[in-house]
Amino acid sequence: MNLPNMIEAKKRNKKEFNVYNYEDVKCVLKNKKYFIRTYGCQMNEHDTEKIKGILESNGFVACENYVDADVVIINTCAIRENAHNKVFGFLGQLKHLKETKKDLVIGVCGCMPQEESVTNELKDKYKFVNFVFGTHNIEDVIKLINESVTSGKQSIEVFSKYGDVCEGFPFKRSNNITAYVDIILGCDKFCTYCIVPYTRGAQRSRSKESIVEEVVNLKKQGFKEVTLLGQNVNAYGKDIYENYTLANLLKDVSDTGIERIRFVTSHPWDFTDEMVCAIRDLPNVMPYVHLPVQSGSNRILKLMGRRYTKESYISLYNKLRSIEGVSITTDIIVGFPGETEEDFNETLDLVNTCKFDGAFTFAYSPRENTPASIMKDQVDEDVKFERLNRLNEVVNKYSNMGNSKYLDKIVNVLVLGKSEKGEDKVMGYTENMKLVNVVGGNELIGQIVKVRITDTKSFSMDGVLAQ
Ligand code: 5AD
Ligand code: SF4
């Protein structure tokens, strides 16, 4: 058994990390069905693609409903408290299922087990959970299933460490059109509200060769789009190269000729002019930037440890805005400790200045062991939610305005699948990441088509194929 330790998780005293290859382990369970529920960000979704790939290369078959599965895994998110509540709610349902399905194997993985309190709770009160692992040992999933099934006891392996890089996972991608590609793991920013640097370890870049090779292979397999992933992609390369940054990587990935390249998430602190130019000049790098601001008050930004000011953010924002056809979205937290009505109004002012194409807005949620969780002047929950509502109204107004500019315009849409808006429609994204529901059949899936926009809303647009 290995339990997490948040003090260890915080250490950044090592300069180098190991890169190793995934090695196949044979599972003792044969011909079984699995179900994975994933919470959280794209990084977690991509980790689930790794776990699925490992299970399927061992003969497991996916099933749609967890009640039919022999193995159920919950890939968890620790970023806010509400994700925590959902996971424990689902575990309650699984406990019930296991009363009639004694051989059901249940696993919990991802960011939540990296928290000491969670893993202790699973160990002491959730003994029906067969195995637990964290973010640093995804490749151990089969080993843990084997151990727990053979011993009949709970297997817990959660490491709190600097972190390594595992290459060569057998991915089971969620579709064959657009793919996630990890470029940098972990985070060293330690924003004072954020648990990610503790749950995902130090910032570690994958080598440019491995990334480019992965994109070349995806292109050969017919993928049209890649999304380069990291908690802070703009820090790419800093830890392993003297002089090779995200701007260089975008150029090398662009040279593969893959049709569309995206990247998330960007931290304003590491965003250089070279990167702005790379996005502007490379034809297959899509004009879309997710640039979290978090707050419009310099006092709060300082308490958050964000290392930029409102003014420097706006200056970067304006440089990015000058890119033809760009759209820019952001993340905002309301109710950070000490946030006054005045601070909050500065956030509203910033939203009115930037007119973001969209924003993900959150009420501050105190996270175990982070500095902000013990700051004085924690904001009342009702004040947080009242501010969140006011903020959302302003944010939605600008999303709507941003979309309405496209009415009657022709846009290029990469069609990804069926639309939820009707049998006769498919859905996809514009170059600048606007969701479009297009009248048309399944034969359009996987194609980049020209679409005339016929209606616009806050979160999507409707369109028809352009003649
Ligand atoms: N409380 C609320 N929101 C948070 N985020 C990160 N940590 C917290 C927290 N403790 C938000 C930030 C980040 C996004 C992924 O989640 O806005 O950019
Ligand atoms: Fe969290 Fe800040 Fe790192 Fe983003 S940059 S993952 S908000 S610590």
Can I get a quick summary?
The chain has 467 residues and is α/β, with parallel strands linked by helices. The chain contains 13 helices and 21 strands. Iron/sulfur cluster binds next to helix 6.
Give descriptors for this structure.
467 residues, single chain, 21 strands, Rossmann fold, 3 domains, pyruvate-formate lyase- activating enzyme, binds 5'-deoxyadenosine, OB fold (Dihydrolipoamide Acetyltransferase, E2P), 13 helices, alpha/beta, 6-stranded parallel sheet, 22% strand, binds iron/sulfur cluster
List the helices and strands and how they pair.
Layout: H1 6-10, E1 19-21, E2 33-38, H2 42-56, E3 61-62, E4 71-76, H3 81-100, E5 105-110, H4 116-125, E6 131-133, H5 141-151, E7 155-157, E8 165-167, E9 178-182, E10 184-185, H6 196-199, E11 204-205, H7 208-220, E12 225-229, H8 246-254, E13 260-264, H9 273-281, E14 288-290, H10 298-304, H11 310-321, E15 327-334, H12 341-354, E16 358-363, H13 381-404, E17 410-418, E18 425-430, E19 435-439, E20 448-456, E21 461-465
Parallel strand pairs: 1-8, 2-3, 2-4, 4-5, 5-6, 6-7, 9-12, 12-13, 14-15, 15-16, 19-21
Antiparallel strand pairs: 10-11, 17-18, 17-20, 18-19, 20-21
The protein binds 5'-deoxyadenosine and iron/sulfur cluster.
Uncertain segments = none
CATH H-level superfamily of the largest domain: tm_1862 like domain
- CATH architecture of the largest domain, by name, is Alpha-Beta Horseshoe
Approximately what portion of the residues adopt beta-strand conformation?
15-25%
How many domains is the backbone divided into? 3
Q: What is the overall number of helices?
A: 13
CATH class of the largest domain: Alpha Beta
Task: Classify the helix fraction into a percent range.
Answer: 25-40%
> How would you characterize the largest beta sheet?
6 strands, parallel
Terminal Cα separation, in Å?
63 Å
* SS-based class: alpha/beta
Number-wise, the strands total 21
What would the principal axes of the Cα set say about the shape? globular
Q: Kindly provide the radius of gyration, computed on alpha-carbon positions and rounded to a whole number of angstroms.
A: 23 Å
Mean pLDDT: 97
- Which strand order spans the largest sheet, edge to edge or round the barrel? 3-2-4-5-6-7
* Small-molecule components bound: 5'-deoxyadenosine, iron/sulfur cluster
CATH topology type of the largest domain: pyruvate-formate lyase- activating enzyme
Multimeric organization: single chain
